[in-house]
């Protein structure tokens, strides 16, 4: 039974916008909230097609918006952000939180595993680059573009988070467990699937047709990696490559890594970074190759939401006051489109 619950706070009390593309990401965001505020006090206008959930994490009131079902990708994400800023005009910063594909680089000791988290952050690119899938197939990457940097308050918080993790473990396992205790029904699907189901195949070995679970794929083609001592997600900071199509090709994946330093692939950030002052947080659910399946999606979504929650703890409340309203930035054209 669903009970309608309306937020006790006016729409303009919310200052952080959190965007998800998939229902499993929306569920993880909702599960991570410290307080559940329910639906917006003032319903969105008819033209606003987002699903919303309102809540709080620590000192911040947060709007979570989910893209319309089966419409992932950059244009729907940009539309969702713009609609959200109309309905919640005091939002100052945003987070794009969900799943993505990891690009390991074992030879160079970049050991990204399923369930790890990548945060878009790079001194050269602001953390996200856009690539054109068609151009990649032609062997040309000339259309790559660099996007806006995350807003200052988030940039400062990212620095603080990295510094903290020099001296202590990240809080992701703690926040995921807290979510599972609070929402026991999620335990079945949102727990770590186990290291034995994290299989990275050699880049030149293609998936054997049949079940998506790789049961017919050759175990001898699995890249050998040292088991980790625990199942705790590791947070990586680096360049996220954003494109218009799902990558299921290890050659394209590795090309983006080798030529542009990308460590993660996703589909929503292109466009959004130039239309919304935000940072991108991706839980790794596959390796962007022909073996890609959905097995890790829920845990990866939970890990990303946990990382976003820890990031938010590092934002000073007065730093947010110093940020202009995102709506003003976007609609005054201060963002490059
Ligand atoms: Zn396979």
Summarize the structure.
This protein has 337 residues and is an alpha/beta fold. It has helices at 23-32, 74-87, 133-137, 152-167, 172-182, 187-190, 250-260, 269-272, 297-313, 317-321, 326-331; strands at residues 16-20, 35-38, 51-57, 60-66, 93-102, 117-120, 128-130, 145-146, 235-242, 262-266, 278-286.
List the helices and strands and how they pair.
Elements (H helix, E strand, L loop, with lengths): L15 E5 L2 H10 L2 E4 L12 E7 L2 E7 L7 H14 L5 E10 L14 E4 L7 E3 L2 H5 L7 E2 L5 H16 L4 H11 L4 H4 L44 E8 L7 H11 L1 E5 L2 H4 L5 E9 L10 H17 L3 H5 L4 H6 L6
Parallel strand pairs: 1-4, 1-5, 5-11, 6-9, 7-9, 9-10
Antiparallel strand pairs: 2-3, 3-4, 5-10, 6-11, 7-8
Bound molecules: zinc ion.
GO molecular function, one term: catalytic activity
Organism: Aspergillus ibericus CBS 121593
GO biological process, one term: nucleoside metabolic process
Describe the fold and architecture.
The protein has 337 residues and is of the alpha/beta class. The protein has helices at residues 23-32, 74-87, 133-137, 152-167, 172-182, 187-190, 250-260, 269-272, 297-313, 317-321, 326-331; strands at 16-20, 35-38, 51-57, 60-66, 93-102, 117-120, 128-130, 145-146, 235-242, 262-266, 278-286. It has a single domain (11-205, 221-331), classed as Rossmann fold. It contains eleven helices and eleven strands. A five-stranded mixed barrel has the order 5-10-9-6-11, surrounded by four helices. Helix 1 crosses helix 9 (297-313), helix 4 packs across helix 9 and helix 5 (172-182) crosses helix 9 (297-313). It is globular and about 60 Å long. Zinc ion (ZN) is lined by residues 207, 214, 217, 291.
């Amino acid at each position: 039974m669903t009970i309608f619950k309306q937020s006790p706070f006016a729409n303009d009390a919310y200052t952080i916008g959190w965007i998800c593309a998939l229902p499993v990401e929306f569920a993880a965001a909702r599960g991570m909230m410290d307080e559940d505020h329910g639906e917006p006090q003032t319903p969105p206008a008819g033209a606003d097609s987002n699903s919303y959930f309102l809540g709080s994490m620590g000192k911040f009131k947060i709007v979570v918006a989910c893209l319309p079902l089966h419409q992932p990708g950059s244009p729907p994400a940009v539309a969702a952000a713009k609609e959200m800023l109309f309905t919640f005009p005091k939002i100052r910063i945003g987070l794009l939180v969900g799943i993505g594909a990891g690009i390991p680089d074992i030879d160079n000791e970049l050991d990204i595993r399923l369930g790890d988290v990548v945060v878009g952050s790079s001194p050269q690119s602001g953390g996200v680059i856009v690539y054109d899938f068609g151009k990649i197939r032609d062997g040309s990457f000339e259309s790559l573009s660099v996007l806006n940097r995350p807003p200052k308050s988030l940039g400062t918080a990212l620095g603080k988070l990295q510094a903290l993790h020099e001296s202590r473990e990240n809080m992701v396992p703690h926040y995921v467990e807290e979510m599972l205790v609070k929402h026991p029904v999620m335990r079945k699907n949102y727990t770590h699937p186990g290291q034995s189901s994290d299989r990275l195949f050699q880049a030149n070995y293609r998936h054997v047709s049949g079940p998506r679970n790789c049961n017919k794929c050759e175990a001898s083609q699995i890249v050998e990696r040292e088991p980790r001592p625990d199942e705790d997600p590791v947070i990586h900071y680096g360049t996220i490559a954003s494109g218009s199509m799902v990558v299921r090709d290890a050659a394209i994946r590795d090309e983006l890594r080798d030529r542009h330093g990308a460590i993660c692939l996703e589909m929503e950030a292109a466009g959004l970074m130039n239309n919304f002052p935000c940072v991108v947080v991706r839980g790794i659910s596959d390796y962007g190759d022909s073996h890609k399946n959905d097995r890790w999606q829920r845990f990866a979504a939970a890990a990303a939401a946990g990382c976003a929650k820890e990031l938010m703890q590092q934002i000073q409340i007065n730093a947010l006051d110093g940020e202009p309203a995102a709506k003003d930035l976007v609609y005054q054209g201060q963002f490059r489109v």
